[in-house]
Amino acid sequence: MFELSGELHHDHLVCLKCGKVVEFEDNVIEQCQKDVAANHDMTLTNHSLYLYGECKDGCTENFK
């Protein structure tokens, strides 16, 4: 998946059935990623996070 740079940072949920993509922000996840990097003596400069699953109530639209 490709996105233009310059956008505010966000992460993604992707439905494996219909291809729907939901963008979200979560400060707890962001801090956790920084903590993991620090625990390994690294400074996080960038990352991407995609969570894959299926729409809970079934797929009502074809996003593919």
Automatic annotation (TrEMBL):
InterPro entries referenced in this protein's UniProt entry, alphabetically: FUR, Fur_C, WH_DNA-bd_sf
Record note on cofactor: Binds 1 Mn(2+) or Fe(2+) ion per subunit.
Keyword check for Zinc: yes
Swiss-Prot/TrEMBL keywords: Cytoplasm, DNA-binding, Iron, Metal-binding, Repressor, Transcription, Transcription regulation, Zinc
Gene Ontology CC: cytoplasm
Main location: cytoplasm
GO molecular function: DNA binding; DNA-binding transcription factor activity; metal ion binding
Cytoplasm among keywords: yes
Cofactor entry: Mn(2+); Fe(2+); Zn(2+)
Family from the record: Belongs to the Fur family.
Protein name, UniProt field: Ferric uptake regulation protein
Lineage of producing organism: Bacteria, Pseudomonadati, Pseudomonadota, Gammaproteobacteria, Alteromonadales
